[in-house]
Amino acid sequence: MNAPNPPADGLEGLRANWREDLRAGFLVFLIALPLCLGISMASGFPPFAGVLTAIIGGLIVTPLMGARMTIKGPAAGLIVIALGAVEELGHGDPVRGYHMALATIAIAGLLQIGFGLARTGRLGDVFPSSAVHGMLAAIGIIIVSKQIHVALGVRPEGKEPFELLAEIPRSVAHANPEIAAIGLGSLVILFAWPKVAGRLAKVVPAQIVVLVLGIALGYAFDLAHEHRFSSLFGPGEVGPRFLVTVPESLLRVVTFPDPSHLLSGTSIKYVIMFALVGSIESIASAKAIDTLDPYHRRSDLDRDLIATGVGNLLAGLVGGLPMISEIVRSSANLNNGAKTRWANFFHGAALLVFVSLVPGLVHRIPLAALASMLIFTGVRLASPKEFAHALKIGPEQFAIFVVTVLATLGIDLLAGIAAGIVLKAVIHLVRGVSLRRIFKADVSLATQGDTARITVREAAVFTNWLGLASCLAGVPAGTSVEVDFTETTVVDHTVLEHLDELARERAREGGNLRIVGLDAHRRVSPHPLAARVRARMA
């Protein structure tokens, strides 16, 4: 089935589609505002830092984007890195840590520009999907472990994820009744609103309902003034500390980085994490949105990395959070009828207008309401369905997923994804893949009539995928392709997942891609994309 003709890009696209893009951008702004504030607070940054990043992503980065339908801004997936940078670099001084973290974000942006110029966008395909999903699930658990205490109005004693999770029963027992009413009530709305509101939920996002309820309860509980109260659940104390702190003007948000420790081992670690994890998330989001685009436009991932790097460089220089192509807001953008990249511009413009004209209203937002939105995001990232999905693909994928989660929770993100990658490589070696073929694919291309036949020998695994991908890229669109795995001993899940995606792309372009030669292989699970191992290797 052929896709409809895509809308024009650039200024012509703006003139033809500004109404649809303005509407979509405004609706995305309604979702983005509370999320930007919440992500900032959870990251140890000033509340408006995330808004500043989204404004830069909308007003400045839009013309540079290679992923037309994505929304650029801060993401929950980088909270853990940002907060870690503030705490480790500041050594107990959050203000100093914030200034030093900005320097690492700016340098990470330069590194991402380098990634794009070196055309490394395709390297996102090398990371095994189970390790990436495990990393995201761990991030979700960490977000929940930190924000549940904020939603209950309790300050935890622990700092590490396992300590914070262990403290949840204590926080529930000592919850501040009024703050918990806001936080838990907001959580109920976030989970229930899409089910009970029907079509209205597409026009009025759950986040807006949470904001309205939170602000109303904040007024009812008089959170703007320090006082004690009594309730059916016991006494408590509330005050302005439970509300978002806002600057006198948006210009006060602008903060310059402190580069004095950029050459330290800690700074270098966070530069790598911001650049690596941010790039992986951004590429994954852009590719996911491409599959949802009704016009089947393909993102230029290298150009998008450059655009994201420019955004991160600017955000780091003026006090913002790190930026990626964010999946939730990007999905909402498409679902609300966006046609071109200008929807991202309008979303940034709406944020700028709102925070410039009504900052007092932002001050009335309870932190517990923002925490509930982050908990909602964290639960979706670490949903039991993610664990069940990994197990369904195969026991080795589940092992990689779980090891990545545990290493991330116990050490950090880099250690987590490294542990997942190493475990998967070890599994392939145990299954008989030689060291020589772990990183270099043995592939050949031959043409038989109207069909291009690619033969793969010994192993087709995540670490040598780029060799097969390069061979496939040389086959013209619209051509029939056969990928023959008869001579392989192992074909892993990541390779089959990429080929499944490419088969759908080629079908949209009028061609086809077919896999042959797996009759002598066994699946490691019933999942259609489970890894295949030559039967005699079982």
Cα(first) to Cα(last) distance is 40 Å
Q: Count up the domains.
A: 3
* Count of alpha and pi helical runs: 22
Largest sheet, strands/sense/barrel = 6 strands, mixed
Mean pLDDT across every amino acid position: 90
- Based on CA atoms alone, the radius of gyration comes out at 24 Å
Q: Quick one: how many beta strands? A: 10
For the structure shown, list the relevant keywords.
single chain; alpha+beta; Transcription Regulator spoIIAA; 22 helices
Structure commentary:
- It is a single chain.
- This protein has 538 residues and is α+β, with helices and mostly antiparallel strands.
- The protein has 3 domains: 10-377, no CATH class; 381-430, no CATH class; 435-537, STAS domain (Transcription Regulator spoIIAA, 2-Layer Sandwich), CATH 3.30.750.
- Helix content is 60%, strand content 10%.
- The protein has helices at 10-42, 49-59, 79-90, 94-117, 129-152, 161-166, 168-173, 177-197, 200-203, 206-220, 265-292, 301-318, 327-335, 342-357, 359-363, 367-381, 384-393, 395-410, 413-430, 435-439, 465-473, 493-508; strands spanning 71-73, 227-229, 236-238, 324-326, 442-448, 451-460, 480-491, 512-516, 521-523, 532-534.
- Strands 5, 6, 7, 8, 9 and 10 form a 6-stranded mixed sheet that branches. A two-stranded antiparallel ribbon has the order 1-4.
- A hairpin with an 8-residue loop joins strand 9 (521-523) and strand 10.
- The radius of gyration is 24 Å and the shape is globular.
- The mean pLDDT is 90.
